[in-house]
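Morning F.,

Quick status update on the modeling queue. The single chain you submitted on Monday has been processed. Sequence for confirmation:
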Amino acid sequence: MLGEFVIGVLQGGLVGRASSWAVLGLGIGISQGLAERSRQRLLYGVIGGGLGGLVGGYLFEWLRQGLGRSYDPSRAQGLGIVILGAGLGLFLALVEQVLRRTWVQVLRGRQEGRAYLLARKTSVLGLDERAEVGLFGDPTVARRHATIEATAQGYVLQNHAPSGRTKVNGAVVVDKATLRDGDRIELGQTLLVFRQR
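Structure tokens below.
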């Protein structure tokens, strides 16, 4: 409704459509951050959602005006949803890639190549569906295998799994280990790399 109000106030056109969709993108981005209860995700959502909506709305209106008389309103709705979705997806992912500060990436395991943003003060790693770093498909990983916590001294990995199933740079972690950029974390048969900018 707010988007419709904005496009009405600006009387349509490129700027009106872009601004209207930016408002919609902001709402989607904010909801992403609120759902994950993360300030960092909220910030990324606001920036990425706003930019994605702005660019998507501008592109849609530009195409619509360019088609002129051949414009078919029934097909435009589908095209609009595709453009909005593509713009939001692209900019939300791009903003996260550019602004992220701390994350882990799977080097070996079922989800090889996947990166997980560590956006909360404490992130759970394991098989639990609510884990921030869900490592599914490895029977040697526990539900709450480990946590990574942001502390005043840096990031610390806390082991919660049976002894010997958690390692940092090849050394078994009995209780805790301080992490540095590039450290390799083994959880069962899954290998991760810790990254920090």
